[in-house]
Amino acid sequence: MSEVHAARRSALRAKSSPGGGTALLVSRPANLRYLTGLAPDRSVLLIGPGGEDVLVAADGGGRWSPGLDQGLRVLAAGDEEDPAVAAAALAGRSGAAALAVEEHHLTVTRHHALRTAAGPVPLADLGRAVEDQRLVKDAEEIAALRTAAEITDRALGELLESILVGRTERHLALELDRRLVDHGADGPAFPTSVATGSHSGTADHRPTDRRVEEGDFLTVRLGARFRGYRCRIGRTFVIGSRPADWQIDLYELVFTAQRAAREALAPGVECREVDRAARAVLDGAGHGEALGPVTGNGVGLEIGEDPRLSPAAMGRLGACVPVTVEPGVHLPGRGGVRIDDTLVVRPMADGGPELLTITTKELLAL
User: pLDDT tens digits for 224-238?
Assistant: First the structure.
C-alpha cells in the first residue's frame, strides 16, 4: 500500500500545485490516513513543493516509522508545539511560493498561528481537495469496505439467533460491539444504536436500560471499522410471533422507499435524484417529513463522507463511489423503521449497484 499512498500524494500535488511551487498542509485525520496509511494523534502531513513529504508528529512518530513508505519522512514537533505550526515553519523555510492549508479544518486561532509561523510564505486554501480525491474508491478500499460489511452482517446475524426478550438495549449494543471486534473489526464504525418499542420512534436513539418486550419493534444500526474503512447497516425486526398490521404497513412503506433509492443508484445520476426517489414514496404516504435531511451519504474512512444524497445536493454519482441508502420513518411515542444498506455505485453493464450489507430485509418476527 505504500506505493498507493505515494501515488495519492503525487496526484494531490499535481492537482493542487500544478506549478510545483505550493506546499500543501493536510491536518484532517481521515485525509492524513488516506495519504499516508497512518493517522497518529496530533500529526499533520506537509507535502513539499520539491517532492519531499513530511509527517510532522507530536510524539516523534517513532512507533509509526516502520509503516511509512520511502517517500515519507518523520519530523518530531517540540514537546509543547502544535505539529501544524511546526510544519508551517518548515514550509516557510523551504522556499515555497505558498502554503495551502485545510481552512475548513482549522480554527481561527490555529490559522493565525500558521500564518505567523510560515513567515514570508502566504497561506492559501487547499479546500476539500483531499475529500474530493477520496470520493472514488480503488479496489483495495472497496475490498476493505466489503470485509467491514461481512463482519457487520455476521455480528448482526449471530445476535438474531440469540434470545432477545428481557435483555436491555444497552446490553445488546455492547454485545454487537464485542462481536464486531471478535470477527476482526478494528472497532465500531460509529456508536451502535439499539432501539426497542417506542424508542424506535426516535431517530439516532442511544441505547438505554429499557428491556425488549413482546410486540416491540427492534431497530438496530451498526457498522464495523476495518483497516480504517467504515460501513453501515440498519435493520428493523418485530419481537413476537406476528407483527401488528400497522407494523407491517410501516415496514413495507420504508422498504419500498429504500428499494426505490437503491434502484436509482447509477453513474451519472444526480445525487438529489436518489433522495427524490425515496422521498416521493414517503411523501405519497404522508410521511415525507419523517425522512429527515438526507437519504444517505458517502462512506469510507468516515461515516458521512461526500456525496450527500439530499434534496439540495449538487453533483452526480460516479462509479466506484460507496454510499449508504438509509430511509426511515419514526413515529414518536409509537415506533419506527430503519432500513440502511451500504452499496457501491456500479454501471448497469457491471450488474448495477453492488450491495455490501446483505442481511435479509424481510420483516422477521423474532
Answer: 999 999 999 999 999
